[in-house]
Design a protein that fits this description.
Low-confidence stretches: none
CATH topology of the largest domain: Rossmann fold
Bound molecules: pantoate
Number of strands: 9
Structural class: alpha/beta
Oligomer: single chain
CATH architecture of the largest domain: 3-Layer(aba) Sandwich
CATH class of the largest domain: Alpha Beta
Number of domains: 2
Helix content: 25-40%
Strand content: 15-25%
Radius of gyration: 19 Å
Length: 278
């Protein structure tokens, strides 16, 4: 039987008796097959699995975005129960940000570029909530998707910098049959917009191919992706980045391993995707 826990104090108490190793899958709910792959990996690797669902207000830039974020709690809980998760941790805002809260975690450099530049404060919210979840659940391992590559980098960074000693497990992006990365935000797309969005992965794949063929001028590859994305009237490009995989330092000449990442906006819906070339 899955246990539903909503208080930090209760989670702290229960955590002590969990069979180790303990895996944590932090989520904001609206669970999809991407989350399921993280959960299944945790169930395989660990003797206990905790999944947190908390729509973290401090990582949203716009109140409207937070407001419209899907919150299908019953469906989420049914999915977790069926998967065989041990604990669903569902704290509310007062539990996570009690009155007087004022201490934040921030990765100085990595959090202000790319996604961080377009979404000021976003990674401060992510880094803080993930640190809190690590402190409350005390997992041996924690699972995150490669789709949020910058988030993953920041979490690895804070885990090391703050000596949290959690094994961070990154899992490959799950895609639909046409390559579109699965995301809770895809639910906002019309059929036509979803079709248009397939160019994201196509352009990333094309870029990877160019590098594999020995094209090392990052500017040319960046332009190629931007041009492909620009082919659709529905897509407006926020950024196309070709960077070092770990530091996210922008490259002029390709140096592997390289992260090619992009963000676009399709009718108010922000979509991100990336590909790694080892
Ligand atoms: O990736 C997410 O869903 C969120 O950013 C996370 C890691 C659960 C923190 O709120």
């Amino acid at each position: 039987m899955m246990k539903i826990v909503s208080k930090v104090s209760e989670m702290l108490a229960i955590q002590k008796d969990l069979l180790r190793p303990v895996g944590l899958v932090p989520t904001m709910g609206a669970l999809h097959i991407g989350h399921e792959s993280l959960i299944n990996q945790s169930l395989k690797d660990n003797n206990s699995t905790v999944v947190s669902i908390f729509v973290n207000p401090s990582q949203f830039n716009a109140a409207a975005d937070l407001e419209k974020y899907p919150k299908p709690l019953n469906a989420d809980l049914a999915l977790l129960e069926k998967a065989g998760v041990d604990i669903a941790f569902l704290p509310d805002n007062e539990e996570m940000y009690p009155k007087g809260f004022e201490t934040w975690i921030e990765a100085e450099k990595t959090s202000v570029i790319l996604e961080g530049q377009s979404r000021p404060g976003h990674f401060k919210g992510v880094a803080t909530i993930v640190t809190k979840l690590f402190n409350i659940v005390k997992p041996d391992k924690a699972y995150f998707g490669q789709k949020d590559a910058q988030q993953l980098n920041i979490i690895k960074r804070l885990n090391e910098d703050l000596n949290l000693f959690v094994s961070i497990i990154d899992m490959p992006t799950i895609r639909d049959e046409n390559g579109l990365a699965v995301s809770s935000r895809n639910a906002f797309l019309t059929d036509a917009e979803r079709d248009a969005a397939h160019i994201l992965f196509q352009s990333l794949s094309q870029a990877k191919e160019m590098i594999m063929e020995g094209k090392y001028d990052a500017g040319i590859i960046r332009n190629r992706i931007t041009k492909m994305l620009g082919g659709s009237d529905l897509i407006s490009v926020d950024y196309v980045s070709i960077s070092k995989l770990r530091s996210l330092e922008e490259l002029t000449i390709i140096e592997k391993p390289v992260l090619i990442s992009l963000a676009v906006i399709i009718n108010n819906t922000r979509l991100i995707d990336n590909i790694i070339v080892e």
